Amino acid sequence: MSNLLSQITQASHDVLPLGKWVNAGVKHLLDNGAAVFDSIGVVVEQFATWVEMGMLALPFWLVILVATAVGVRRLGWKFGLFVALSLALIVVTGFWLQTMVTLALTLSATLISLFFGIPLGIWCARAPRVNASIRPMLDFMQTMPAFVYLIPAAMLFGLGRVPGIIATVIFAMPPVVRLTSLGIRQVSSEQVEAGNAFGCTSTQLLFKVQLPIALPTIMAGVNQTIMMALSMVIIASMVGAGGLGNDVLASIQRLDIGLGFESGLAVVLLAIILDRLTESFGVARESSDS
Amino acid sequence: MTKPKISVRNLYKIFGNNISEAVKLLGEGLSKDEVFARTGHVVGVNKVSFDVMPGEIYVLMGLSGSGKSTLIRLINRLVEPSSGSINIDGEDITALPQCDLVKWRRKRVAMVFQSFALMPHRNVLDNAAFGLEMAGTPRKAREDRAMEVLGQVGLQTYAAKYPSQLSGGMQQRVGLARALAVDPDILLMDEAFSALDPLKRVEMQGLMLDLQREQQRTVLFVSHDLEEALRIGTRIAIMEGGNLVQEGTPHQIITQPANDYVRRFFEGVDTSRYLTAADLLDPGLNGHSYNGGPRLPSHTTLPEAMKIVLGMDQPVGVFDATDQLLGCISARSLLVRMAQEARHV
Fold first, then answer.
1. ipTM
2. What's residue A60's pLDDT?
3. What residue ranges in B70-217 does DSSP mark as E strands?
4. Interface mutation vs chain A, best among B102, B161, B182, most A CBs within 10 Å
């Protein structure tokens, strides 16, 4: 049996050399699309630099103060206390700057994901055919092991922040596309009819009826995108994206369990704060209603 | 004679892509189910024609699947007609291009929905002002107007609340206010009160009639409830399988139902309340039986007639508007007729 299997594998790998084709494809892009990738790289680099400079320019106490205030306002004093203590712990363990770099990377990747993902989601909701053709692509983007993006991204954009952010955008964009599309399609047919019956143009229908009603669902997508982006920017340290990922990577290379725990804990605390805060914006309306 | 406000002629709605084929089969007399079996096309509305006069409340009645909700959506083209014409004030609505259609919807026609279809992210005031906002009315003007109509439906104090904070009946008041705010000449009401409990439903019907007394609008009202239709309808049209099977005043529907389908709606409804003295004449008596006893105008309702007739030993005369004697009612004929009506209940 195993003999047969290896025969089939050997023969068919010559007939269908999928991996070779992908290699050839990436090489073709490298040879012919260098100018395009370079210009994309410049734009992303510039954007990421601004965001990072902005984050690092803020004094740490101000960040802690603002984050705590938002936490108290949205989720109560208990969560506010948690935010204050967590961020203080990050400062004490000496990971503040790395955490801010990671936050900046996450923010850049998330903003780029939303910039493309929300319009794409709207398009999917309005055109079932687009939806049908984009869905398998989203599945691919979301489930392909994240490391796999890093190699072509690094080849096309060089090492550093840019391939990290691009790989993160690819990995983190699917949820916001899916949930934007879902949210719009879930608006009840009578609500859409009401919009039309009262003389909405198609633009008004989108901005005055569909998007506002879909907002809680879209915010759930934004929340997922942020969480996926955060997990990916840590992995992206392998191509030199920087931030907390560098420390995680170093701890693995040096088998330094303590360093791994400290830097990992900073990631976890950042993740919890981002998750709860963005989640609270998604359900904001429902709770203020009742 | 006044011109009809809405005039619908040979209107078809067929869901599918080979409409002419389905129309042909319908022309050969096939039913909705047969057309579906042969072509897979769903017949929504089959060659319907009717007129609605200005200021009338015209009720479309039928069971679910009879095409009444499709028909009301054809009037403001939420559903595009397959063929036929809809003339409103002499203008063929089916021919309006999209941009004119949007303008027409903003000014002339408003709709109230079964599920209320309010916007959950807007408060009551902004919901009521929705139509005006779409039409580009400045904030102050539209909020003033919204406040005014909220006053008409008794919700002025709830302006800052959100729809989810209101009961079903109150939500539909907001739905009604939203429709009234644009001051439409035509009001389309799709099962507007069907989702409400019976007491709230009667209350809303009363509100509807009060509003109609203040300002006469042309109302097209879809319902599956005969009692509602009889209470608020100026005229009632009964639909079955996409066809309009009967049209008439509540009195005509009650006294001369076209077929068993129409009669089935009477079940559980006290139709005797809508009978008048003219329906109660004793067939065994003629004008000569009248010997100068009490006189009843022909439009006297049954409860009124009962009070007088049951207190008399002799027949009571019924007279029409020109003081012509139509016939007599005896206590016996009255009770026989009531027993007939009671069989439906």
1. 0.84
2. 92
3. 83-88, 91-92, 109-112, 186-190
4. B102
